[in-house]
Amino acid sequence: MASCRVVLALLLCVTFAMAEDHDSFMRAYDSGEYVGLRILEIRKVQRESSPSGHEHNVRVLLANHTSIPNLAEWSLTTFTNSSVSYMSTIPSLDPRQTEMEFEADLTNVTGVFVEGLDRNNGRVAMAYTPIDTHVMNSRLAWVGGPYDPSLSSLRVWPGSLAEVWVGAKVCRSDDAPCYFMEGSIPRNISRCQDTPTPRDGSSVKQCDEVITHFQEIEEEPRLKISDNNLTVSISLRSIPAKIEAVVYNPQDPRQVFSPKEYHCLVEVSTLRAGPEVVCHQSLQATEDVKEAMVLVVAIDHEGYVNESRLTLYIADSHPKNDNTDLIVGSVVGGICLIAVIVAIIVFFVKDKKNKGKGKSKSMKAESGEVRTGAGTKYEAAPTSEPPPAPEEEERVEA
């Protein structure tokens, strides 16, 4: 019981210290003792070491300011409510520097402080902005292939945003997820919003620029389309939270056969070398479709695309009815069975005939041969009488 009270007291002390840290930051910012800086933009940008986008950097743009004396480093501190959630420091390049990038995390962040520090880690300049978390939770990913300026495919999930513009096209939250297939898409797609700062009435532009890089599913999926139903069997690196499939006309990517939400219902999930997943999706108007493009997308629990693959489905090489082979095999097997039976019957018939001939020859050998008249032969039989002798022989005897 005493140990529990000690732990609880420590937790309260830590919470109070974090709250004091936040409060001390705010008091220092309001004091006017340091060079005042104003944040114009704060952006969530791609980190090279994290192509998935799970980790990112934070880029800050300051308004022009006077030269800051003794400036040696820049520090960024993020807060979640009243708690310090992240701190990052980089060297200063210029006493009038206005743009800098930190390894940091804006997930669920509610406020950001930027400080200029001297060589002794003393504060010499300061800026602050609140953060609107709704701007920072969209999910974009290149799917089906790596980015190509002339031909790319993009998945968009707006998150808490009402809409996301992709060039001249828009993805609205009511239509999400959105797939922009095989088109010319800009490489940089910023999701930005102006957030007011309550202290001075100005606003800060907050943007999310992270787009998950393409990661290909290693093995080609096994596809079947039959009676307006798609079946996908596929091996993945890890078990996804969900799978989406986009089936469309190769000649016209705007003609999509998949349902609006693109969900592929997972039926089986087993672990071999990697997760083996089978999923099903109901399609529309595919009765006469001879070929189709099928995009399979695996998504994790945080909404990031783990991997994807684009495959051409050709009906001739993927029969709609898997029973065809079974039927053909049964017919061939039946014919073979009949041929074997006929061969057996013929064999026994011939064998019987041969045995009959052998018996007849044996009977002839036992009965012998009798000459009558001028060389006429007679084969004696137990039920027959010999024919009468010719008249000429009778006269001679007389």
Folded structure, characterized:
21% of the residues lie in helices and 39% in strands. The chain has 398 residues and is an alpha+beta fold. It has three domains: 7-135, Immunoglobulin-like (Sandwich), CATH 2.60.40; 136-208, no CATH class; 222-314, Immunoglobulin-like (Sandwich), CATH 2.60.40. The strands form six sheets. Strands 16, 17, 18, 19, 20, 21, 22 and 23 form an eight-stranded antiparallel beta sheet that branches. A five-stranded mixed beta sheet has the order 1-8-7-4-5, with helices on one face. Strands 6-3-2-15-14 form a five-stranded mixed beta sheet, with no helix packed on it. The model is unreliable at 1-20, 318-332, 359-387 and 389-398 (pLDDT under 50).
| Total domain units | 3
Shape: elongated
Strand segment tally: 25
Largest sheet: 8 strands, antiparallel
Overall mean pLDDT stands at: 80
CATH topology of the largest domain: Immunoglobulin-like
Quickly name the level 1 CATH class of the largest domain: Mainly Beta
- In CATH terms, the superfamily of the largest domain is Immunoglobulins
Question: Per CATH, which architecture of the largest domain?
Answer: Sandwich
Based on CA atoms alone, the radius of gyration comes out at 45 Å
Secondary-structure element string:
HEEEEEEEEEEEEEEEEEEEEEEEHEEH
What's the topology here?
Blueprint: H1 2-31, E1 35-36, E2 39-46, E3 56-62, E4 73-80, E5 83-91, E6 99-103, E7 111-117, E8 123-130, E9 139-142, E10 152-157, E11 163-166, E12 169-172, E13 178-183, E14 191-196, E15 203-208, E16 222-226, E17 229-235, E18 242-249, E19 252-256, E20 263-271, E21 275-282, E22 291-299, E23 305-314, H2 323-367, E24 370-372, E25 376-378, H3 391-397
Parallel strand pairs: 1-8, 2-15
Antiparallel strand pairs: 2-3, 3-6, 4-5, 4-7, 7-8, 9-10, 10-13, 11-12, 14-15, 16-17, 17-21, 18-19, 18-20, 18-22, 20-21, 22-23, 24-25
